[in-house]
Here is the input.
Amino acid sequence: MLAAAGQLIEERGLEKFTLRECARRAGVSHGAPAHHFGDVRGLLTALAAESFEQMQQEMVTREAAAPPDAYAQLIANGQAYVAYAMANRGRFQLMFRSDSVDCEDPRLITSGRATYGRLEHHIAAVLEASRAGDGLQKEKSLLSWVIVHGLSTLTLENRLFDGDDEARRDTALSLVDLFMRMVQPGVEGSGVD
Here is the structure.
């Protein structure tokens, strides 16, 4: 069911997602999804949780391929975020739709926090490497997330770049590197005058 739901949401988007079509694609009766997930919200919640887990795996993969220094790891984390969004538009949009998922679902909470926790880990490592202390660590994590999330969203909505999906993705990935390097002195700084 989750595989069928993932395929359907990528093809049609959330607005045209139906439980009946999902069941048909999965080769099960139209009542089967309700038996396993309760309703469409339950299925979409499970799909969103799975999507956060997939994004986290993309982060692990890109971080492993990046240089070991703290800032390179932070950039790899941001590029993984954007790359996942570009490759999984429907899933990415679902992950942040509180009107379509159960935000109190334990698996969704755990997977979402773990994904954001990777970013927080990298910000802490950058601050430690620069001997800046933890001044404004929470705010610096949020700023970094705003950069990659905003860039992902604007790229997906075709409001930032021209070209095909691959060209837009490549431009967005290079901008993650540029933006994060532009804010490097502020991220590394203690934030305390």
